[in-house]
Structures are given as structure tokens and as C-alpha cells.
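Objective 1b of the project was to move from sequence-level analysis to a structural picture of ligand recognition. The entry below was assembled by the postdoctoral researcher (A.K.) and checked by the PI before modelling. It contains the amino acid sequence of the target and the SMILES of the bound compound, pyridoxal-5'-phosphate.
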Amino acid sequence: MKNYSYISHLECPKCGEVYEEKKVQQLCKCGSPLLVRYDLEKVKANVSREEIANRPNSLWRYHELLPVHEKENVVTLGEGMTPFEKLPTLGAEYGLNHLYIKDEGVIPTGSFKTRGASVGISKAKELGVNHLAMPTNGNAGAAWALYAAKANIKATIVMPLDAPAITRKEVYIAGGDLHLINGLISDAGKVVGHLVQNHGVYDASTLKEPYRIEGKKTMGYEIVEQFGWKVPDVILYPTGGGVGIIGIYKAIFELQQLGWIKDGKLPRLVAVQAKGCAPIVEAWKKGEKESTFFKDSATCAFGINVPKALGDFLVLEGLYETEGCAIAISDEELLKAQKQVASLEGNFVCPEGAATFAAARILREQGWIQADEHVVCLNTGSGLKYPETVEIKGVETLQPGQEI
Ligand SMILES: *Cc1c(COP(=O)(O)O)cnc(C)c1O
Ligand SMILES: [Zn+2]
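Corresponding predicted holo structure:
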């Protein structure tokens, strides 16, 4: 009998301690996030790339490499296998002959946070969790509340008052236990910490449970599969908590170990941040292994306003190991790129995703990216979730009968 999942155990990337996956685990004793490990030899013996390619268009097509044992526990809204498209017009504008978008704007809940929620909630269900809590800047809380509703798990979501209004409404409509805080995501984190400590609630905060990253890593699997089981030269990722970029890095290593990537090279990973919140960029410039708290952070790209990430050391490792880099983009530059992408290619990308396009342009200008390299920009969500970032200028209102 073939297994649905070949998960074997959890492992600490910092101290090497091993943990059992059949019961609830949060952080390692040493404070580090835990990573999920699989029996890759068995995966290799039991499934092929061809078999995966014939499965339905969902991230669950990679179920052997995901942590859920029983198919019945999978909580899905049809997420994954989002479009991967070449952008020739914008590419020509930027001097890039092979510019691609991986577009997470078209996924349930409107952002890639859905991947982490689908896998994270499915595993929580399998582990018997009935109440979880998390602080959020918006999109993660929205996704987790909606998937928790489907799984019949209570979700306590704490978000800053100025998080995008739509995400608050998503939590509310899902029947989530919504709390607003007149403060930052770090303040929301303290409220959640108290609840977890004193009431035994499952902590679903970024990287404090090991499974969200497993959902997000499927972006890496999909890019490789959609690119014909090869890796592109460069992948640019809008980096906040860093789960997405750590996930992509992990995915590519797993595929290398499986022997499923045609050539042995690694894509150079680029962490794109906002100038108003760039802790990873600062650390990378100094060659450091960890970041320091970025004071008074501010950017319109809400999803990447994370002044200190728990997994910063893993993001930085991914940049150094793949010979990637980190770059900060001003809000002005990313909004300009957002308009360019929509007006030249028709994709209404979110501000976070727009930052990766601005970064691709700048890195090309600086010669860090060559004209013939294959470059993938990750658009992490739909621009439709951020209507307030688009300022309309020079449009007049007609009176009936008036001509233009
Ligand atoms: C959360 C978020 C990010 C940052 O993702 P991380 O995995 O936390 O680095 C980027 N873009 C959007 C739209 C987000 O919601
Ligand atoms: Zn440890």
C-alpha cells in the first residue's frame, strides 16, 4: 500500500533536535522553528513526476511531500497550480528577454497565504486541534479563518486596526473570533501569546507551527513543474516573515534530492523588501546570519511589514547558499511598477508583488541580472484586495449628454 504522505519527523534547523509529528508541536526547545522532514527515498520509489503531472490542478497533487496522512483530513477550497506566464511587453521594457510572473492573485482568499492555511489547517484537524489563535497583518488571518470555518475549528484572529479592511471582513464573514488592536502585529502577538500560555490554544503564529511553510513551499514545486522540471535563474520574492522564500528554498532542495530537477543548479533567490521595513536587506548587506528589529517600520505593502522575523536566519541562509541577494524598494517605486504591470500586461498585482517587479528592473539595470536569464517574479496576492493603494488622477465626471 502506498502512503498518502511520507512525512517522517520534525527537525530543528538550529540545534538538530528531532520531534515526533503525530502530536502537536510548536517551536523547538531552543526557540527555533521546526522543519518537516520526509522519507524521500520512499517518495522516489512510489511516485514519479509523470504521475504528479496527471493529477488535478491543486497543491495537493504533491501530497506525498505534504504532512497530512489521511486524505479525509484535507481541507481544500481548490488552491494551487496558479498561472505561470511570460510577460513579454514588460520584459522588453525592463531589458529582460524571459520575464515571468507566478500569479498568486488568482487563488481562493486572494493571496498565497491560502497555501499555508490549507496545509496548516488540514494538519491541525488531523492532530485534533479545535481552537487556534494567530496575530496577523491581514491576509494570513483571512485565509486561516476561512479554512478553519470549513474544518470546524475555532479561529481567534488578532489584527492591527490599520490592516487592510477587506481582510477584517473576511475573518468576520467566516465567523472567526476577530479582535482588532490599536497597535502593531507585535502587540497582537503578545495577546495571542497570553492566550496560548494560559488557555492551551494552538499557536498558529508564523513559523510557530511547522506546517504553514509546507503549504507555501508548493509555490517552489509548481514553478519547477511549470518550467518543465527545471529551475529558473532568478526568483524574486516579497519577503515579510520569510515563510514563502524559506519554503521555496526547501522545495527546491527536496526536488534536488529526489533527482526531479533536470540540471543541478539552484535559482538565485532574491528577498525583496520595502525601504520602510528592510531588516533582511540590512542584515544581508553586512553579511550577518540574523536580522535586527527594524524600528518604526512603515509601508503600503502591508504583507511585508515585518520588523523582525522568527525565521530570518533561514531566509539569510537561503540567500547566501543560492548566491542570491536582498533589495529594498520604496513605496513610490513599487506603486509605479504596479501600474506598469497592469497597464502593459493586464495583471493587477498587489503592492508586495509589485515590489518584485521594481526589483527585477533595478537588478537588471545594475547588471546583477543578465538580459537572457530566466527571471520569475512572485506576485503574492490580488491587487483587488488593496483598492485604497490606487489613486485615480485626471478623471472627470461627465453630465448626461456631455461628449468626450
Ligand atoms: C504575507 C505576505 C507576504 C510576505 O510573505 P512571507 O511568507 O511572510 O514572507 C507577501 N505578500 C503578501 C500579499 C502577503 O500577504
Ligand atoms: Zn532547536
